[in-house]
Design brief:
Elements (H helix, E strand, L loop, with lengths): L20 E2 L7 E7 L4 H41 L7 H16 L6 H5 L3 E5 L5 E6 L5 H13 L11 E7 L1 E4 L2 H11 L1 H4 L2 H6 L2 E9 L6 H13 L7 E2 L6 E8 L2 E8 L1 H4 L6 H18 L7
Parallel strand pairs: 1-3, 7-8, 7-9
Antiparallel strand pairs: 2-4, 2-5, 3-4, 6-10, 9-10
């Protein structure tokens, strides 16, 4: 028998494997939880990374460019303050090659460089759930809402994700304690519920708590704590309304971390609780119903 045919292409040019950082979610982290098909966590992260990066460039391109310019100016000042060493031509080439390799493979980035990444996926070691950590100027609520608006557009029939099911934004997070939860509420909920306009009018709100691998604080204790903070001992005219709310507080609890975000009434009424699969299933169902309603044309 003949020998096996060698694989085509240059081994050095082969696409490097996608890797997710592993570990817990740190306090004060913003990002996006995503549920996905079982045993497809890595594939889901791969397709979301491309999708998020595209939308982030579209939404925050100017801000990212400005931040990059500020970082470059800071680096130049730092370099000017340090004595420079003259490098030979060979050393300069080696340095350039090393920098290109770092850009091509995020796994070789230093801790400082990783901090500058706008999106970084974290392996939660949890079935059907992944987490994408974001940093400024990315606003997780804005990013997810923009994605849902585009996906729900009847004219948009292209499904960009295969394995991803539902997205949940997290504006910030804290360690799993009621004391830290109250501080987080002040940071995330205060600007939404404790304004002069809200004080006069009042807001109908609800709280939705999701817990995974989490038993530190009972669910009702979390809800009661947030309701108490939002109402401020009836200083505000806010009311709990589970069916016809104006604002919904999403609380995601995972291991030692609690994350919070706020969404509007269209979260469930229009965008199917940010469930991509359900949005497309509903869209295709509507199209099928329209086709069946149309009378058959008779050709002469």
């Amino acid at each position: 028998m003949g020998s096996k045919r060698p694989a085509s292409g240059n081994d050095g040019q082969r696409k490097k494997k996608f890797r997710m950082a592993s570990g817990f979610i740190d306090p004060a982290t913003s990002g996006i939880y995503a549920t996905c098909a079982r045993r497809k966590e890595k594939r889901a992260a791969e397709e979301l990374k491309l999708y998020f990066e595209e939308k982030i460039e579209e939404m925050y391109g100017d801000e990212i460019k400005k931040l990059a310019e500020e970082d470059n100016e800071a680096d130049e000042v730092s370099e000017e303050s340090e004595p420079k060493e003259e490098l030979s031509i060979e050393e300069q080439i080696q340095q350039e090659v090393s920098e290109l390799k770092k850009k091509a493979n995020n796994n070789n980035l230093t801790k400082e460089e990783k901090k500058k990444e706008l999106v970084q996926f974290i392996d939660l070691d949890c079935e059907c759930v992944i987490f994408c950590k974001t940093r400024k100027p990315v606003n997780p609520e804005e990013l997810v809402k923009k994605i849902m608006e585009e996906l729900a557009d009847p004219e948009n029939t292209i499904k960009r994700t295969r394995y991803v099911q539902k997205l949940t934004p997290i504006m910030s997070s804290c360690s799993a304690s009621l004391e830290q939860l109250n501080k987080l509420a002040e940071h995330v909920l205060g600007p939404r519920f404790h304004t002069e306009a809200a004080k006069e009018k009042g807001i109908k709100f609800a709280i939705e708590v999701t817990r995974r691998n989490f038993n530190t604080i009972p669910k009702m204790d979390i809800i009661n704590s947030l309701v108490s903070y939002i109402g401020q001992n009836q200083t505000y005219k806010h009311k709990v309304d589970l069916k016809d709310y104006d604002k919904l507080v999403l609380v995601e609890c995972f291991k030692n971390n609690i994350g919070i975000s706020v969404v509007d009434r269209d979260y469930s009424k229009v965008y199917r609780k940010y469930n991509i699969q359900q949005i497309y299933e509903s869209k295709f169902k509507d199209e099928d119903e329209k086709k069946t309603e149309q009378p058959d044309t008779v050709k002469n």
